[in-house]
């Protein structure tokens, strides 16, 4: 190539002219042109834009297990979260140059500013907290900053496209580069033309307002000089086209070294990590990104008949999604794409023409299947692979071994994973995913299980993102293995937790992750925090999480004895502190306490069962021997009795306490009706009475069915409501609407029918459980019809299939049903 030489320190030219190949990062046209130019020039050394610390990693690119897209990852040794990526796809010119050199045993070296400097100087934090070096790699086709306005980033590709009369930079690039025929012309011509264009842009915009480019280019000039001294004239340089004019200009060694003097440094490590097409796309925030990695990969890999092969690929995807796409659709789509290209004056059909053709022919004008084509093919879900011999932190090595042992391979495409914790391999997968979540490596996200609410089943949504490699490196400070690192992280999180609820949630996560070594520290912190916290709301928030954790002892085989003791102590403190905490509350605070009461009630039920099974040491109280669930539940029932009898307690809490006692059989229906009658008497303010009703029959706790089956209670509510004064009715109406609107449509309809004919009329004051006078209810139970459903109930419950189950005879089931 022609042009000015690079001036040596003594003012003379060193060797011959270097071959400067300016490229667009991740441009398949540039990649093909680089390969052709290298084949023609046969250089003795290939210099590539990239961190020189990665020179030792270049031979791994020839490994059979290396499959792009991949990325060079640099991170600070003492601060792994400070990191940078240099992604490479199969169609990246840098990757093509690297592979060309390896195949011909030609030395290849990186010549950009070392990562030891770039990690700490002028770094731009990525959206996810990592520093992506590609945001600083300007290639003449993606963002540089204007010299005149440093806060405005100029896109050189857009400037060139606009100059050529194009309104779309990607379409211009396809026309002038990607769709340019191979031919037998000058292989260096495109690079000379691009260098001339970039030279004009650099004259206009200077360094683009980005001072770091000046330093990077000074370092690259020094590396080119060093290579010329060593290899003479056989030097080829592959770099972003934006940098070519700067590398071509005359500059002294002293001036370049002066720019590099005093740069901050940090000790850095480098390795290869898998990358994805999705992370190569511009929408991911990648500074040198492209709009269509999958399309560019197709342009690079397919030797001929690009449109026909692309349409065939699209048809295969749509057929896999059960859409009716025939060969005739493919033929018609190809013809339409070529026709659109001719009408638009393009040399070949590009992505916009193929997309329009696919929408019109294969998708019948709908953008819904077209979005699938865009996600799966235009962008793509390709995940690269790196060989096992690549350098990695010890924690990454241990994670790799665990992934292979558990047959849990990282994938770029999001998928759901159903786990049956009764199986050893699924239990191991669950432990690994929970431990990684503790370490901040969010490979999997737990979601609601479909078809089962049991504790033996888990559902995870998995998706591997390249940034997780940084999270693993960052988590390496906690330990060299996943269990050890998760244990150390859990202990540190427990000590630094901001609230009691945080500690209880951490205890639950430790049980899910099966970290027995971390539990003693977490339990001690939990006990200390619980002893010092006097806020009943905080205690009530913490108890349900603890009790939920107790459920995992059976399925996972975890010893939860220490957790049971802490939960029992927490429950006792709630029992003592709850009644005083319910006095003098406004409406919002009362509703919050009502939610806490519901949560504690459910937790005490589970905890009472666990304590009774495990021999709890809670002192027995009067009536405990007749209370299912043992003394804990009896103590809780006594607290509810206190709440429902105190006038200072807000009505919504008193009503809920009565309802909970009624549901547990601790309060007779006559007594519940008496308490309701007292509250709904004329002496009670309407707002207080409405709040009591809200607590008793609201909250989605089956209150509507209670009123349907006990017309005495419905009659009390009806009589009270009809007696509310007109001036107070508008005040209680919103509360009542909220209460009754939560019922299902069928329940509301039945209540309306009962109210219309008048509660108690025609039924002689029907008791709970009776149904005389109401459609669908008989005066007495029809035993023959009830027995007919027992086989179906047994089948639904799986009682005939459970090994070792003692079984339940029809009398047992009939008793439950009646």
Automatic annotation (TrEMBL):
Residues 121-149 are annotated as: Disordered. Pfam families: DUF5682. Residues 129-142 have a biased composition (Acidic residues). Transmembrane segments: none annotated. This is DUF5682 family protein.
